[in-house]
Specification:
This protein is mainly α and 89 residues long. Helices cover 66% and strands 0% of the residues. It contains five helices and no strands. The mean pLDDT is 91.
Length: 89
């Protein structure tokens, strides 16, 4: 949704677009601020960003056929994921 607003803000304005879409202008501007300043990201968002290359590596090493469960398990075996994680299966 943010990318849509970015693409059309010059023609219609952020507030007018947000009136139609289910997003508040403050949410849009907060997203822009976080994108510009990574220090404002939450701890979880920073960890997720740091894990992306590892997730990609596991996925690629396994012929791009591993799903979320197998990638998660492999990362846990390698000690890259804490016992408490997003997926509970």
């Amino acid at each position: 949704m943010v990318s849509f607003i970015d693409a059309h803000r010059d023609a219609h304005g952020v507030e007018r677009i947000c009136d139609v879409l289910p997003i508040a202008p403050s949410t849009y501007y907060d997203h822009l601020a976080r994108r510009a300043d990574p220090v404002r990201l939450s701890d979880r968002a920073r960890r997720d960003k740091a894990l992306r290359p590892e997730i990609r590596r596991v996925f690629e090493q396994n012929w791009r056929v591993y799903g979320v469960r197998k990638v998660w398990r492999q990362l846990r075996r390698e000690g890259l994921m804490s016992p408490v994680a997003r997926w509970h299966g």
